[in-house]
Write a structure and sequence with these properties.
single chain, mainly alpha, globular
Length: about 210
């Protein structure tokens, strides 16, 4: 019985991953076609990385926001037991969704700076996004339970060591003249992506990525 349940959960997880990949691919293609090409220098690898990072964060944030706004619908594509769990976790998930969307906007605005958006306007929007992320996160801290705090600490620790190894090693090689250093935009984008990956690792290590 347990093996059957595990197999079913694995199938559900695979289908959700495939569906997410398809949605992400379609959204990315549409964004690059109608927003990216006219407003971004997509031939620049740093801009391309930033755009991809922003799209990922926006999609995740919007999906969580949709699940919070419509729990019955969200229960089918978010990793929760049922709509009631989404309603119980609504304050915490709403905070995460807003912060994630703001980070996505922050990176996309930087990618569009000098192209579709004037540098001064981009600076103002990016600064507002960062301030809002800090404010929203600080306001949502009081809603954290012990498990959330533990996951946050683990993800932060993984993120620190991954950042040290990746960027510390890269910087050392660049300092010694073996490789070129990356652009500031690529650095910010990769740093944000790395934090997302380490968060998934922290959650995955506790088996929380499997459908419930």
């Amino acid at each position: 019985m347990s093996a059957t349940m595990d197999a079913r959960k694995m199938r559900v997880m695979i289908w959700r991953m495939l569906a997410g990949a398809i949605v992400g691919a379609v959204a990315s293609l549409l964004f690059f076609k109608f927003v990216g090409e006219p407003n971004m220098d997509l031939k620049n690898p740093s801009v391309l990385i930033a755009a991809a990072c922003g799209i990922v964060y926006l999609l995740i944030g919007l999906m969580v926001a949709l699940g919070v706004a419509a729990p019955k619908t969200g229960a089918h594509f978010l990793n929760v037991e049922d709509a009631d769990e989404l309603r119980e976790e609504r304050p915490k998930l709403r905070t995460s969704a807003i912060a994630t969307i703001l980070i996505g906007v922050f990176v996309l605005v930087l990618a569009m700076a000098g192209g579709g958006i004037d540098n001064q306007v981009a600076l103002a929007i990016a600064a507002l996004c960062l301030i809002a992320v800090v404010a929203v996160t600080a306001a949502g801290v009081k809603q954290y339970d012990e498990l959330t705090w533990q996951l946050t600490r683990e993800a932060s620790a993984y993120g620190f060591y991954a950042t040290l190894v990746l960027f510390g090693g890269w910087a050392a090689l660049a300092h010694l003249g073996y490789v070129p250093w990356i652009s500031p935009l690529a650095f910010v984008s990769l740093l944000i992506i790395l934090q997302l990956l380490t968060a998934f690792i922290a959650v995955g290590r506790r088996g929380m990525l499997m459908p419930r």
